Each structure stands twice: as structure tokens, then as C-alpha cells.
């Protein structure tokens, strides 16, 4: 008997079988202010669906929260009379505010995120000087995913890969012939996620990307962001094969040491995301605002020099 390939071994280890013949119905929604894609993922055989990486709108200068973007998703689900099973965040986003709890209030469904969110909560609870009323155990979410977990969207089976490096809690959600990679990968001409946030690591990111690269070449990869370099049109998905061949940071068999050297040098040149301070305070709470103070007003904390770690 021949030995299994690396990909076959990986799939056996996780009891993981990609269902390439299963094609979920996917509707993308693009939020221009943060270049974020949100998705409705629907079971083609039933009225059940999930929402992945929703966006709450924030006018930072005015301190104004609104729900224009996510209301488009809610209205589509209501119009079609679909049942929302899951509200997924692929990780604790640093560049936009999650609308997970807002969606749940309107439509129900379970909010899920990677189990390492507990590590992220512990880190940022210190940075934002959260008091003891903020629980650092992930209990703000309904389900904490571990590698190898599965869940259902109607008749669809979703499978989980832990793909840290950008953050400790990053998860890739594989649903039929589609994988939702969060910020781990961008379109091939945009490269890969940064790895310089607390808990991030370039070596770990490289290894996570190569875990994704073990999936079949024809597996579709859906992006959380697209920044349309060189003025090209906005795109929301590519394939494993295209990333392996053409990704400017990690494609064409770039080795780990060269990737890490590139990624760490590049990260030193990057500014912090504009919404990182409010986004983290909301997203470690599953899309809830920080508790109102005695005057019934919500506030974001602005820690000084908390991310001033560039050398």
C-alpha cells in the first residue's frame, strides 16, 4: 500500500473530507469604508443560511454607530424568509466592527468564533484596562470553534481549520467547495495578512497558509478584504491553485525563512488600521459596545502608545 500524501495525511488526521461537489449559494456584500466583504452562505437544499464577517458602521470622527451595511444582509434574509443558523466571525477583526450581536437580536442564530478568542480577550483586556466585569472566557459568544470541529447550515456541513498567525483566533471555515479565510490570505496580487498584532507571528502565518494550500487546488477561497491594487476591479474570491501559483508573498514555493523576513520587514512599515481601537473593544464582545457608564453613554477607551512597537 502506498503512503498517503501530505494532503491525504492532513485530511485523515482531522477526519476532514472536502465536499467539492457541494456548491453553497454565496451572496457577497462589500463595505467600502473598510474594504470588507461579508457573506450570506445558504444551503441550496433548504432555507437555512449563515452570515460570515458582518460589519457595523462607525463614523469615528462623529462617534456615530449605524447599521446601513448589515441591514442589507438582514433585509435579504427576511425577504427570502431564510432561517439564520450561524453568525460567524473568522477572527477578532482589527479593521472593522462586527455586527454579530445586532444580527442575532434581529434574526436569531448562534454567534461563533475561534476558541483562541480567550487569548485575544486576555491580551486586550489588559491593553484597554477592562475591569473585572469583562469576562475573559469567550462566554460572549455562543460557540468557540476548535480545529476539526464541524457545524451544520441546514444540510451543509461546515468544517473548521485553525489558521493563526495574523491573530491567535483565526479560523478558516470550509463549506462545500468554498473556504472563508478571513484575513489570512488576500487576493494573489495583494499577498497575505500582517502578523505584528499582539499574538501574531509570521512563522505561524506561513504554516497556516500552507495548511490551506493542502486543500484541493479547485477549492474556492473567499476573502474578507480586497484593496484592488493598481486600480483593478474589486474581487471577492480566488482558488487554492491560484494562490499557490501567484500570491506575491507566499506563492511559487517561497520558503518559510524568506517569507518571514519579508513579512516582518513589511509589517514595520505599516500603519495601524484606522479603526483598530474601537474595533477590538467591540469585537472581543461579539459585536457589543462597551457597557454604558453612569450617564448611560457608551465610550471607547483610547490607550496611548499601546501599539507603538515599530522598530
What would your notes on this structure say?
By secondary structure, the chain is an alpha/beta fold. The protein has a single domain, classed as Metallo-beta-lactamase, Chain A (4-Layer Sandwich). It has helices at about 5-15, 70-80, 100-105, 115-125, 200-210, 240-245, 255-265, 275-285; strands at about 25-30, 35-40, 50, 55-60, 65, 85-90, 110-115, 145, 150-155, 155-160, 170-175, 180, 220, 235-240. The strands form three sheets. Strands 1-2-3-6-7-8 form a six-stranded mixed β-sheet, with helices on one face. Strand 2 and strand 3 (about 50) form a beta hairpin. It starts with 5 loop residues before the first helix and ends in a 28-residue tail after the last helix. Residues about 1-5 have low confidence and may be disordered.
Number of helices: 8
Shape estimate: globular
CATH topology: Metallo-beta-lactamase, Chain A
How many structural domains in the coordinates? 1
* Spatial arrangement of strands, main beta sheet: 1-2-3-6-7-8
What is the residue-mean pLDDT, rounded to a whole number?
Answer: 93
Classified in CATH, the superfamily is Ribonuclease Z/Hydroxyacylglutathione hydrolase-like
Helix proportion: 25-40%
Structural Rg: 19 Å
- Tell me the major beta sheet: 6 strands, mixed
Strand fraction: 15-25%
Which secondary-structure class do the elements indicate? Answer: alpha/beta
End-to-end gap: 53 Å
Report the CATH C-level class.
Alpha Beta
The SSE string, one letter per element, is HEEEEEHEHEHEEEEEHEEHHH
Uncertain runs with pLDDT below 50, 5 residues or more? Answer: 1-6
- Shape-level CATH architecture: 4-Layer Sandwich
Number of strands: 14
Amino acid at each position: 500500500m502506498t503512503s498517503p500524501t501530505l494532503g491525504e495525511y492532513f485530511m485523515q488526521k482531522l477526519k476532514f473530507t472536502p465536499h467539492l461537489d457541494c456548491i453553497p449559494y454565496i451572496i457577497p456584500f462589500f463595505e467600502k469604508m473598510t474594504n470588507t466583504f461579508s457573506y450570506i452562505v445558504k444551503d441550496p437544499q433548504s432555507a437555512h443560511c449563515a452570515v460570515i464577517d458582518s460589519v457595523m458602521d462607525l463614523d469615528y470622527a462623529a462617534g456615530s454607530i449605524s447599521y446601513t451595511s448589515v441591514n442589507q444582509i438582514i433585509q435579504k434574509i427576511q425577504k427570502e424568509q431564510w432561517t439564520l443558523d450561524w453568525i460567524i466571525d473568522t477572527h477578532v477583526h482589527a479593521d472593522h466592527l462586527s455586527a454579530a450581536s445586532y444580527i442575532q437580536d434581529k434574526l436569531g442564530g448562534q454567534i461563533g468564533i475561534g476558541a483562541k478568542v480567550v487569548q485575544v480577550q486576555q491580551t486586550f483586556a489588559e491593553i484597554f484596562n477592562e475591569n473585572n466585569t469583562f469576562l475573559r472566557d469567550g462566554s460572549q459568544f455562543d460557540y468557540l470553534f476548535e480545529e476539526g470541529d464541524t457545524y451544520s447550515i441546514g444540510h451543509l456541513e461546515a468544517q473548521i481549520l485553525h489558521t493563526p498567525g495574523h491573530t491567535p483566533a483565526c479560523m478558516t471555515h470550509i463549506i462545500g467547495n468554498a473556504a472563508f479565510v478571513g484575513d489570512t490570505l488576500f487576493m494573489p496580487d495583494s499577498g497575505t495578512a500582517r502578523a505584528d498584532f499582539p499574538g501574531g507571528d509570521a512563522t505561524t502565518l506561513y504554516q497556516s497558509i500552507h495548511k490551506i494550500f493542502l486543500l484541493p487546488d479547485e477549492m474556492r477561497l473567499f476573502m474578507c478584504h480586497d484593496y484592488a491594487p493598481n486600480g483593478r476591479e474589486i474581487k471577492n474570491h480566488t482558488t487554492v491553485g491560484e494562490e499557490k501559483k501567484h500570491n506575491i508573498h507566499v506563492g511559487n514555493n517561497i520558503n518559510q525563512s524568506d517569507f518571514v523576513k519579508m513579512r516582518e520587514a513589511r509589517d514595520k512599515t505599516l500603519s495601524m488600521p484606522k479603526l483598530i481601537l474601537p474595533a477590538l473593544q467591540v469585537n472581543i464582545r461579539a459585536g457589543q459596545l462597551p457597557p454604558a457608564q453612569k450617564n448611560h453613554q457608551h465610550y471607547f477607551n483610547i490607550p496611548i502608545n499601546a501599539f507603538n512597537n515599530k522598530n
